[in-house]
């Protein structure tokens, strides 16, 4: 507001000077100089909104001063201005790249969902290979995952195709009897989480290990490995190998639990939803074996 008033006064005084003798014009100029010297350079009108009380958000100090010639000039002290500008450019580039990567991943995930169908009411004796074979005439099946208790008729699966045409064609197979029950086929709302191929079983022995292994999620971070082992051994059977994993990003941990016999792993599936510590653990069949850790020689 003060700046607007001063600007109006400057314009009015300038018009008066044009119509007055030289002596009066000099007096008017001096009057303007006196007016400018009374301005507070730290007034809100002359202070950029990105600055805070004499300090900008990067730690430098400064303010804008209105010179007698009517121009605003910046009087910021920033000894490392080039460094700060370079850092700002790098940060902007990194943030832009993150936004681009985020959009790219979201687009890939949405495309994967459109190529996936959800299959329910799967007979307990139906394998993933047999289920995938049912949909081979619809299009190329690139992944098939059966989930749930293998002894329950309420198992479900996700089948992903190479393109959307295969997924749309698969919807026509709803009601097909597979085993003893007609399956239901619906569009999927989620994509299949990819499995690192290096983690998949490499031999018949490792495939047998998978039948004795369960995959556990939503494990409280305060729970130790020994507590997880005691939880499953007390109600399921002997645990021969256990791998508890976690990071600083996720609020919970995951675990792979291998039992001495396959029957114990089947019993462990019924533990899904039971409290382990303060949180209900989720248990599902594991697609990867728990490999023994390789001890690397210490370099000297």
Topology summary:
Blueprint: H1 2-18, H2 22-37, E1 51-52, E2 55-56, E3 64-66, E4 72-74, H3 81-114, E5 116-122, H4 128-134, E6 141-147, E7 155-161, H5 164-170, E8 177-178, E9 181-182, E10 184-187, H6 204-211, E11 213-220, H7 225-235, E12 239-245, E13 252-259, H8 262-269, E14 275-276, E15 279-280, E16 282-285
Antiparallel strand pairs: 1-2, 3-4, 5-7, 5-10, 6-7, 8-9, 11-13, 11-16, 12-13, 14-15
Helix pairs in contact: 1-2
Report on this model:
By secondary structure, the protein is an alpha+beta fold. Helices cover 36% and strands 23% of the residues. It has eight helices and 16 strands. The strands form six sheets. It has a four-stranded antiparallel beta sheet with strand order 6-7-5-10. A four-stranded antiparallel beta sheet has the order 12-13-11-16. It has a two-stranded antiparallel sheet with strand order 1-2. Helix 1 (2-18) runs antiparallel to helix 2 (22-37). The protein is elongated. Residues 52-73 have low confidence and may be disordered.
Terminus-to-terminus distance: 74 Å
Average of the residue pLDDT scores: 75
Helix count, per DSSP? 8
Strand content: 15-25%
Sequence of strands across the biggest β-sheet? 6-7-5-10
Looking at how many chains there are and whether they match, the oligomeric state comes to single chain
Count the strands? Answer: 16
Q: What best-fitting shape do the alpha-carbon axes yield?
A: elongated
Low-confidence stretches: 52-73
Proportion of helical residues: 25-40%
Radius of gyration: 36 Å
The largest pleated sheet is described as: 4 strands, antiparallel
Based on secondary structure, the structural category is alpha+beta
H-E string: HHEEEEHEHEEHEEEHEHEEHEEE
